[in-house]
Design brief:
377 residues, alpha/beta, TIM Barrel, 2 domains, 9-stranded mixed beta sheet, 3-stranded antiparallel beta sheet, 17 helices, 15 strands, globular, binds iron/sulfur cluster
Length: 377
């Protein structure tokens, strides 16, 4: 039986962060939450056949801000998933500090959630204000303490590297702050991306904000790496660090090209070598599901070559890299026969390191990962 991860998209947010280009909705009323959750349950049951044929290993509530809605909705969805598997290894919920309290956190634990991903981005309140985050560092700390008191022992957080007007010192303070919280076992650290049309894009273009230069950003990454590794965090993926045994199982499944089913508006799926995304519009998602119209968009059936290329790139994101034998077992082909020229070139340029077991990115290769991906596309 193949393993399967389930992703559930809860698109509601209290307000829009300036840098965000995810599908999220600021309007969040009890009636539209109820209707949306019922529709997700409908979509879940519409996939009964698939769910019976798979071993559900992880569930991930992402958003949006899943913690904005009442915990009873999370429990309702999990109760249905448990009809198909009652021993799911990892159930994560993404949360923002402003929407958490001890009661809600206790209800999550009772519903079976065993991993909390609590958004921080920066421990500097001025920086948080500049990117439109509602929560302050103090609110984050309160939510963290409530989570620990409620009984969460597997907490992840995320930081953004290279935020507007941020200095190396600011960033160091953020990392030091995270390291002072001992129940944080996992950290995601992505570089800031400026998406066209966002408020951040406007504020930068009109000169209200500036970004740290490339060298400062590189130094931030280097510093982060050093500080986290010194405290026992292992960088198991380009942008993700974990204490031993606390790697995200759900995300690791993405990077090892396992199947996942996405439920809700804008959720992405990868099933039977086919990728698709649900319509990124909550109202249409509900309407189409009720009328029995497919909500799937951008359906892409991947052929063997596409699947192999994607597998190489995904595996190279992981610290352990691409294992030659695993590739052969999965595709019945030798990656060194197929990509000898590219691999030799990247090794020569010190972007990849190679031994008898496989290939993996060097530190320089992580920094210039796009150049590496290009060689395999
Ligand atoms: S909380 Fe997350 S999803 Fe919501 S607006 Fe902010 S970045 Fe976007």
């Amino acid at each position: 039986m193949k393993d399967l991860g389930i992703y559930i998209h809860i698109p509601f947010c209290k307000s829009k962060c300036f840098y965000c280009d995810f599908y999220s909705k600021p309007e969040c009323t009890n009636s539209n939450i109820e209707e949306y959750i019922d529709t997700i349950c409908m979509e879940l049951l519409a996939n009964s056949e698939l769910l019976q044929e798979r071993n559900i290993t992880t569930v991930y509530f992402g958003g949006g801000t899943p913690s904005l809605i009442d915990a009873k909705y999370i429990a309702k969805i999990l109760d249905i998933i448990r009809l198909f598997n009652n021993s799911i290894e990892e159930i994560t919920i993404e949360a923002n500090p402003e929407s958490l309290n001890k009661e809600k956190l206790t209800a999550y634990l009772e519903a079976g959630v065993n991993r909390l991903s609590l958004g921080l981005q920066s421990a500097n309140n001025n920086t948080l204000k500049k990117i439109g985050r509602i929560a302050t560092k103090e609110m984050f700390e309160k939510a963290y303490m409530s989570a620990v008191e409620a009984g969460f022992s597997n907490i992840s957080t995320d930081v953004i590297i290279g935020l507007p007007n941020e200095t190396l010192e600011d960033f160091k303070n953020t990392v030091e702050y995270i390291l002072s919280l001992d129940k944080i076992k996992h950290i995601s650290a992505y570089s800031l991306e400026v998406h066209e049309g966002t408020k951040l894009d406007f504020l930068l273009n009109s000169g209200f904000l500036t970004l740290p230069d490339e060298n400062t950003e590189r130094e931030m990454k280097y510093m982060l790496d050093k500080m986290l590794e010194e405290k026992g965090f292992n960088r198991y993926e380009i942008s993700n660090y974990a204490k031993p045994k606390y790697e995200s199982k759900h995300n690791t499944a993405y990077w090892t090209q396992q199947e996942y089913l996405g439920l809700g508006a804008a959720a992405a799926s990868f099933i039977n070598s086919t990728r698709y995304t649900n319509i990124p519009d909550m109202d249409k998602y509900i309407q189409y599901m009720k009328q029995g119209i497919s909500v799937k968009q951008d359906i892409e059936e991947m052929d063997l070559l596409d699947t192999m290329k994607e597998y190489i790139i995904l595996r190279l994101r992981l610290k352990e890299g691409l294992n030659f034998n695993e590739f052969k077992l999965k595709f019945k082909k030798d990656v060194l026969d197929m990509y000898k020229e590219q691999i030799d070139k990247l090794v020569e340029e010190k972007l990849l390191e190679k031994d008898d077991v496989g290939i993996r990115l060097t530190y320089k290769g992580e920094d210039l990962a796009n150049i590496v991906w290009q060689e395999f596309i």
